Amino acid sequence: MQRDERLTQIQLLLDKEPSEEPWEGLCKLLNTWPEDEGLGEAIDCVEQQLTGWSDNYRQTPWIWRKKILERANPRLRIVRGLDLYARKVGDKGVATLAGMHSLTNLTQLYLDSNNIGNAGAVALAQSPYLTNLNILQLRYNNIGVEGMKALAQSPNLSKLSQFRLDENQIGDAGALALAQSPYLNNLTILHLLGNGIGSEGAKALAQSPNLSNLTDLELIENPIGDIGASALAQSPHLANLVGLSLAFTQIGDEAVVAIAQSPHLSKLAELDLQGNNFSSVGCTALVDAGFKLDNQRWCRFD
Questions:
Q1: What pTM value is reported for the model?
Q2: Domains in the chain: how many in total?
């Protein structure tokens, strides 16, 4: 196919309603475009006309993900989402990603189950090219306190709105670093399942004005106990929460009543309390506050 024919095909795809189909077509065309036949111009053309497209459509295709750590690919400039789930990336692979200028426009990065460790977290935090991220997912990655501190102290991550760190090892010290971060104040979703966070970590999160934009907080399988959960209930900084997940957090009636009666949690619509040991006292308090048990979660409807 000649260059002009390719440009015509690109324009036809760009003229379609944004969806996965034209996006896949664009990626296929660019993938077969020889780099010495005006590829840069074609990428510029596509990039300029994709401004109105949802980032959710602009995910990195498999063919580009497959060799992303092996060679530079200028086509990555047009993508907004990159998912490398369980690709054995490791800390060295993350360092390679963090140094890719072609990922400057990335807004969504999913690196679950890659064992990036503290060194990988530090590389992400220090990257000058990943400054447009608004979603960062680092679940199951053996990240500890050092890695959490680096992420929390990075001004490069100030655009994050969703941060998922489930099943790492940040503990109370990591929770404190997160709570004290002046750069994570745009977060609306924070998931910290299974991180060894106790009551002190929960209190640090509760006392943080930097987390006042949170609408969804998940602390499942962290032993925060009644003290930690009650601190969350008493926090004026968590008044925007709509969802709160505290399943298997070793809480009882004291914390459940505090949550149900909290003047700060009036927006709370979904509450996950599975796996905790509370009695009819806690259940009554929840019902009195307008909650109903629905599919093992307590929900409150307007």
A1: 0.96
A2: 1
